[in-house]
Write a structure and sequence with these properties.
2 copies of one chain form a homodimer. The first copy, chain A, contains 14 helices and 11 strands. In chain A, the strands form 2 sheets. A 7-stranded parallel sheet of chain A has the order 2-11-10-6-3-4-5. Chain A binds a DNA duplex (30 and 30 nucleotides) through helix 3.
Chain lengths: ~325, ~325
Amino acid sequence: MSRLNELRLVARVAQMYHIENRRQGDIAQHLNLSQATVSRMLKRASVEDIVRTTVVPPLGTFPELESKLRERFGLPEAIVVECSEDRDAAVMSRIGEAAAHFLEVTLSDGDVLGVSSWSQTIYKMVENIHPQKSASVRYVVQTLGGMGDPAVQTHATQLTAKLARLTGAEPKLLPVQGVASSKEAKLVMIDDPYVRETIGLFDRITTAVVGIGAIEPSELLARSGNFFSASELSRLAESGAVGDISLRFFDLQGTPVKTSLDERVIGLSLDELAKIDRVIALAGGKHKTAAIAGALRTKTIDVLVTDKFTAERLVTEDF
Amino acid sequence: MSRLNELRLVARVAQMYHIENRRQGDIAQHLNLSQATVSRMLKRASVEDIVRTTVVPPLGTFPELESKLRERFGLPEAIVVECSEDRDAAVMSRIGEAAAHFLEVTLSDGDVLGVSSWSQTIYKMVENIHPQKSASVRYVVQTLGGMGDPAVQTHATQLTAKLARLTGAEPKLLPVQGVASSKEAKLVMIDDPYVRETIGLFDRITTAVVGIGAIEPSELLARSGNFFSASELSRLAESGAVGDISLRFFDLQGTPVKTSLDERVIGLSLDELAKIDRVIALAGGKHKTAAIAGALRTKTIDVLVTDKFTAERLVTEDF
DNA sequence: TCTAGCGGTGTATATTTATTCATGCATGAT
DNA sequence: ATCATGCATGAATAAATATACACCGCTAGA
């Protein structure tokens, strides 16, 4: 009976607060209540569902998918982008754009940025970064050596350098091959002072941007410039590896797949990656779905940027 | 192009804030932003209409009508109550209930409450007041003498006394007739020490509850117990009076109608009323519509409690 | 009747949020 | 090129809001 009169007042208070944007103090004065009472009435208004707040997602965003991704993989943050078709070229551009914006807005003073080159998607990201006004980033650290023949290797360092320029940071390059021909060769290479310096910075990286690679031999071979041997590849397949981050492999459960390869790769390890504050992973495309699932389960990724098709597969399919 | 990515982030922030109820600080930390930026994004979210807040009025309340009343009459606050039919008895009960609740919730420590008896609606209000736990009200002051023959007069004082008891206050009664037979008689009556004391409290009243009377002769005569003369009534009509508050008359424009009656009425004047912090007026019913319109235009009323039919007329009809 | 526990309140305070301010670019006019 | 202007930012702070606390009165059970 008098509940209606209570709610009437609650609703009126809610109206003044939410619609007329009055301060609780004003409202309290207007109605001869204490500010505390107004605050409590407003709480009651939400409990009683008298105020309803909806967030209208802009078209082309997929909060639903993002939320499912976060939930399914215990992922802190996901960004799912629109793209018209499920083809790699289109997908990469969109992911790159979104990642670029996110990174820009989100970089903070004194950051040390790690980039695992070479990835087409990361390239697209760097392409979309606007020159930063205030040089907040200290270093941009290359976290993986170059790939393929030495001429092509420069791609990796160029990418790092470009990102450093855009962010006003000092580049810290890794002017060596990502995969040494042998364990011994690696030891030699990492003896170079520049290389040592860069590697020494790995544990000061605050934000790392990484790609996620698939294990399909063709893709991997293309990326690695045939540096892996046939037996190594088959061993990988046997151990259930589904993908890699900076040539560090893992299976569908996210368990690292240790092989002799690790001793030849010059770059960030998964353990080192796990210690980094913020790891932003960029990947999309049909053939990468399983690789991404595994990557997410390594629990090293803080933000995944992907496309809506891949996201849909990730939350729908069984792995 | 990048606007979408901006809005995506804004929407995500809005979601975390409004749906997941996270603090701005958390969100800032989660996304590597400053709390100030999060606050600004949330503001942008409302501007861009990404968050929408609606207040769902409980059934049986009429925020729309209340708002129109406030607007049309420059009324600080209006309460419009549901009632099934436009008949006085029903209307009065509902108004009384709502007023009772409002008053209860809204009384504050040390208040001095004025009641202009006699009004059926105010009676209904008092009937619905729950005994107050903490005796916050200091005095309940009767602001108009009784009406009709001395036996009936006690109604007025009883009402005041009852309200005082319910609110835990000390009653300050006006144990005289509301309308003296002559100016001289009034002077004699207000010489009584009790009467003087009560009248002396008029300017300390913090909240007054008043009824609004219509001028239809039959009604007025009934109320006044035939204390007004025929000539007085006709003079009132001639001067355009449409209603009264505590037997102080005004026309449709809210202009006080001064007559010789004023000298005979023992009670609060309109000027005194205007000085009171909070004046709560209770009135409803078809024949009171014009009276209420006039009363609202006197600018002495802070809260009007009325019924939906009367409210509808007040905001619709021309006066 | 007495007492424990449950709301509900206002005051004082802690917490959270908005804004002010100083700064660092960009942009565009002169 | 130089300067005014505008815009965005974070740090500091002001403002607003939520909560802890103490208190009161009621209810229900002993």
